[in-house]
Amino acid sequence: MPGLxxxxxxxxAANNKRGAIELAITAVPLIALWIAALVLVxxxxxxxxxxxVPAGAFLLRLFLIQHDxxxxxxxxxxxxxxxxxxxxxxLTLTPYEFWRRSHAHHHxxxxxxxxxxxxxxxxxxxxxxxxxxxxxxxxxxxYRSPVVLFGLGPAFQFLLRHRVPAGLxxxxxxxxxxxxxxxxxxxxxxxxIWLVGLWPFLLVHLPITLIAATIGVWLFYIQHQFEExxxxxxxxxxxxxxxxxxSSYYDLPPVLRWFSANIGVHHVHHLCSTIPFYRMQSVLRAxxxxxxxxxxxxxxxxxxxxxxxxxxxxxxxxxxxxxxxA
Length: 326
Description:
Helix content is 59%, strand content 4%. The protein is built from 15 helices and five strands. It has helices spanning 2-8, 16-42, 52-70, 78-91, 96-109, 126-130, 134-143, 146-160, 172-196, 198-222, 239-245, 254-259, 266-271, 280-286, 298-303, and strands spanning 124-125, 249-250, 295-296, 309-311, 316-318. The strands form two sheets. It has a three-stranded mixed sheet. Strands 2-3 form a two-stranded parallel sheet. α3 packs across α10 (198-222), α4 packs across α9 (172-196) and α8 packs across α10 (198-222). The chain is globular and about 60 Å long. The model has no long low-confidence stretch (mean pLDDT 92).
């Protein structure tokens, strides 16, 4: 593992020109699609709402640029990454400083059974579930249902929970940052509503936001919630092993890979989070053996929806039925 990390060092270098191009070819089409959808809807041409689908995909890609900024990997200078991330955070309804801190916790503890609870999809072990009372079991089942995780969950996370994010808000700087983001979101929304009207704004912007949020939540889910992932207690947990084998390689078609900014190469990302997304395919070409680690196709990934509990004996994620808890 140390040898692989050393070999990945050349791929960590950010390219300012490439970063600026990636930002431009994501932001400009998003703005153009947003304006086109708005114009069509205001003219009573409801087919304009179809444009919210590709616009949502571009907004997702913008969020993933923000993600790289949070790791300090998109541009060379930290301050540039920070301010680009903050500005994008207003558009993606994400309090950047809080998200960056909680996401760093996720990277530092992914796969550690003793450090669950911040920046993760809540996951219980079979033994923990068996100890729960009837109401707690129903609540966990409800939380892990696809309707909640991929239906209600994205809207709740980005529209409500991000407004007063819990977990690290004892830090005054993070609290102020979150409130500043809320203020900027409010000013932008008020300005747009003043220009175009309340209902056209909601009819166009809300679907774009929810499409991006839903796809983003799905990608975050499948990156760690697959059958052969890795979970360990602190005494056996190791960062490098958990990063490489506890994260999936979501092998997507080229178009989806582009819109998801190579986030599917998640095992490499967790092993070395300072590699910019625009260098990930170069990593896979240089180290083809990494293409067989945690590899999931779209059809395989859909089967992971039913996996809800970590079986410490079988050392894999299982469904309620598999654990004989149906």
